Structures are given as C-alpha cells and as structure tokens.
C-alpha cells in the first residue's frame, strides 16, 4: 500500500472522528492536490438537516473554491467510506482524477459495491479508483457508531 495513501487516509479518519464527536455518521474526506490537502470535511447531515451534506460533497465545494475551477482532474479524494451514488455522480461531474476509499458500502456504495459510477461506460468521465485503504480502521469506526446507536434503540 502506498505510504502517501495511508497518510492522507489518516487525515480523512481525523475528519471522520470529528463527525463521530458530533453524533454524525463517521465519514471523513480530504482532497489532495500536488501532495497538499486543499479540502477537509466530515458528514454534517444531522447538524445541517441536509441530506446532501456528505463529507465528499462538502470537500468538493471547498476544493473547487481552493483551485478556482469546477474541474478537479489533478486531485485525489480520500474518503473513509465508499461514495454513494450522489457523491460518485458529483465526483464524475467534477472530473476528479482519483478516489481512494477505506470501507466498502454494500448497501449504497457507487464505486463498485452496488453501482460503479467511477467506471460506467456511458459516462463522459472516469476516475482512477483504489479501495481498501486502511479499511479495517475505517469500517471499525462505522461499525462502532452503528452498534452504539442500536444499543440505544435507534436506527
């Protein structure tokens, strides 16, 4: 596993812990350009009462503002959970160059688990994809969160 991928995924995990501390689903994301982090975000769906406030979506907005362009072809997104169809669609629209994620999402993942928008032949952009980066740590954070919710009788 590439050392830089692990380093940047650890930054995404820091963001996921911020989400956890805010009682959000613990997903964190960072976007990197030329080996520098240009965006950091975590899920804020509950806090903002916004179903689109996923870590990836917030990070995309920050990154496009940082580079002053709607295109991110020279950037890499590191995210602790496989992007959903909304986020994967936005990544295609932003023409992201590369995506590395930690845990697979067998219920909603759109980068190979349920759908594969990253490599869909009918779309006008495809991005490089790497999965399983610090997967155990990423999935453990999510599992612990949902186990705690179930223990409290919440779904």
Biggest sheet: strand arrangement: 2-1-3-4-5
- What level of helicity do the residues show? 40-55%
Principal-axes shape call:
globular
Task: Determine the number of helices (DSSP H or I, runs of at least 4 residues).
Answer: 5
> Roughly what is the average pLDDT, rounded to an integer?
96
CA radius of gyration: 14 Å
Give the H and E element order: HEEHHEHEEH
Beta-strand residue percentage = 15-25%
**Span from first to last CA?**
35 Å
The secondary-structure class comes to alpha/beta
pLDDT < 50 runs, ≥5 residues: none
State the total count of DSSP E strands. Answer: 5
Report the major sheet: 5 strands, mixed
What are the main properties of this structure?
alpha/beta; 155 residues; 5 helices; 5-stranded mixed beta sheet
Spell out the blueprint of helices and strands.
Blueprint: H1 3-21, E1 28-33, E2 36-42, H2 45-48, H3 55-67, E3 75-81, H4 85-93, E4 98-103, E5 128-130, H5 135-151
Parallel strand pairs: 3-4, 4-5
Antiparallel strand pairs: 1-2, 1-3
Structure description:
By secondary structure, the chain is of the alpha/beta class. It contains five helices and five strands, in the order αββααβαββα. It has a five-stranded mixed sheet with strand order 2-1-3-4-5. A hairpin with a 2-residue loop joins strand 1 and strand 2.
